[in-house]
């Protein structure tokens, strides 16, 4: 199913409108996407929380970026809302999975940013709508990237080697 909030035609039009103003190759420019940053720069990232929708056209890149962060030693938390589109942040309060991911992001920011109060709520009772894609003990970033990539490509997000909340 295509992403209802970011169909391919709109994605292409926005990218074409933004990218032509660049003087460097946009397909590998870290100013376009941090995914293309060198490992030395990525290793300086703070602990990172990433929420992504299962229908997001950037899902594969998002999973790859999470794995790259982990590979260079950056603590990264990736949450996947199986039935969510790109831009699901606008669904806060309207969709249970979107709300749960955003509330978890708030708690993450409060905890990692030095705040003393988290956001109320959580992902409890989501019945598999949110998949935790954290590393399992003993796995390396590359192994997780392979495991997640195989699951996303071959099993429609159902067999990701993770725990469900």
TrEMBL record:
One GO term of the biological process aspect: triglyceride catabolic process
GO CC terms of this entry: cytosol
Pfam family name, one: Abhydrolase_3
The Alpha/beta hydrolase fold-3 domain, residue ranges: 3-89
SUPFAM superfamilies: alpha/beta-Hydrolases
Gene Ontology MF annotations: sterol ester esterase activity; triacylglycerol lipase activity
InterPro entries cross-referenced by the UniProt entry: AB_hydrolase_3 (IPR013094), AB_hydrolase_fold (IPR029058)
Descriptive protein name: Hormone-sensitive lipase
